[in-house]
Amino acid sequence: MKKVFLFGIDGAPPELVFGKWLEHLPNIRKLMESGAYARLNSTIPPSTIVAWNSMISGKDTSEIGVFSYTYVDDEGRSRLVNSHNIKCRLIWDILKEHGKESIALYVPLSYPAKPIKGLMVTDFLTPDVDSNCTYPESLKEKIKTMKNTDIFFDVAVGLAGHKGLEIDVLIEKTYEMTEMQIELLKDVLANEKWDFLMAVMIGTDRLQHMLWNHFDETHRRFVNNSQHKNALRDYYVYLDKKLGELLELLDKDTTVIVASDHGMIKQEGKININNWLIKEGYLFLKEGIDLSEKKRFSRELIDVEKTVAYGGGAYNARVYLNKKKLGKDYKKIREEMIKKLRNIPDDKGNNLDTSVYKAEEIYKDSSNPECPDLTVYFDDLRWASNPDLGQHGIYSWYTAVGADSAGHSRQGCFVISGKGIKSKGKIGDIDIRQVLPTILKLLEVKCPSDIDVNPVEVF
Amino acid sequence: MSNKEITTVSIPTQLAEKLKKRIEGTGFTSLSGYVVYILRQVISSVEMDERKKNEKEAFSEEDEKRVKERLRSLGYLD
Fold it and tell me: Which residue of A has its CA nearest to B47?
């Protein structure tokens, strides 16, 4: 019986996995040599919750219907997204129609768990083990027997906030979380029935955000001779070893995919997008708002009558234009704004390699009110976006919650190896959406007609 | 569309007559086409309501607050 095992490594960058660190990762290397591998073009934006769901739905951000971690509900309140916000079918919905069983472990934006044909354990957005975190519910008993269930779903839970942690503690807790996640993964992989099994390891992402400037000598905040210089690489070596143990448990007819949802790139700093919009005369705040201290931006602060645009976003910037106010000038003003955004220099006056995307150019359905009019990658994501107010000027190094040493980049990794894979070695870049039809083909399931992309050319 | 993709359901004659009267001016050429249209509209609206309800009820207020704090500490939230 043909089976597919997808081992997801959140945010694994091809530059490190396929390049610099490959010699230390024997199991990934073996899969790359016995099969094919490619750089994977992520979604726009390369956000964890969007990208994984694009990979397993074959759909773009707009079809999934999720643009960020929050959405505005019908009462106008900013709410946290969850699995019910996903508008399209995911791979287990398709496989169910063909009588196939799926196991989904820790897949971002799977909380609350949904009844699927198979098993589900939810993701890092899970509040705690007592919440609706498994399907069937009885599965959570296995988690409850583990020694530190508080951090089973995310190392950042219940602690002084990820960025407030001592690095030593963060690293130790990340291993602890991963050990528990792998233990459950091994258990279900070996003992449960499945045709498709997917597990996403979040530990890499959590460490990368904090440790990048401990090994990247070109980082402007590089920590010279850091005792954590090899900590991130060591974690990859550990994950590779765990992958090797998992591969031992698979039968020979199983095709293995190792993939990441996006890559990672050093973060130079942040552009204070709303400060910039205020400076350029696009954004006006209500009278009496005190900006002498850092303040989180919220739409309630806007003077809607006067405002033309406001911004959001963490690694990329999302810019929303006031269509009602602009009327027929919408396109003209948008063009003018694009030009200005592209011309924002860095803090030393150097040009930035900034891309600005219009909604209708990148999305199939830009009618969703959450869909930003413009998506901005400052310096190809080396500069992040900071929507906070009260910062001085347009550059900052910290948000209200701390600093990042790295942000998400455009390309992740894709490795595939198994009996039916004819291509060997490096192949051309792939689109993240192509993973879905590739898995369906391997499982001999007809691809639904509403999928716009073809399987990866490896057959 | 092959026959396999069509099935027959019965509706009261009185309702059919009522619907026929409403077809005029809508551009629909058959009662079946009109009924399918109405059912799709209804079901899509019901599904939308269910989805919105599920979206809103996924997190308790307390849980949502906690998870949001966690995401802020990761720099993921605006």
Answer: A87
- State how far the Cα of A23 lies from the Cα of A19, in Å rounded to an integer: 8
Query: Does a structural domain hold residue B58?
Result: yes
Q: In chain A, which residues have their Cβ closer than 8 Å to the Cβ of B78?
A: 68-70, 296-297, 312-314, 387
Q: Does residue B78 lie in a domain region?
A: no
- Is residue A209 scored above 90 in pLDDT? no
The alpha carbon of A154 is separated from its chain's Cα centroid by a whole number of angstroms, namely: 14
Average pLDDT value for chain B: 86
Reported as a pLDDT band with limits 50, 70 and 90, residue A77 is confident
For the entire predicted model, the pTM comes to: 0.91
Q: Which of residues 370-409 of A touch B (CB under 8 A)?
A: 384, 387, 399-402, 404
**In sequence order, what are the residues at sequence separation of 6 or more whose Cβ sits closer than 8 angstroms to the Cβ of residue A44?**
A61, A316, A357, A362, A375
Number of domains making up chain B: 1
Is pLDDT above 50 for B2?
no
CA distance A239 to A243: 6
Strands A425-426 and A3-9: unpaired
Distance of residue B18 Cα from the nearest chain A Cα, in angstroms:
35
ipTM: 0.80
Domains of chain A are 3-266+408-442 (3.40.720.10), 269-403 (no CATH)
User: Can you give the residue range of the structural domain that contains B24?
Assistant: 11-73
Mutate to test the interface with B, among A47, A66, A69 (most CBs of B within 10 A): A69
Q: What is the mean pLDDT of residues B34-61?
A: 89
Q: Is B66 on the interface with A (CB under 8 A)?
A: yes
Q: Is A209 in CB contact (< 8 Å) with chain B? A: yes
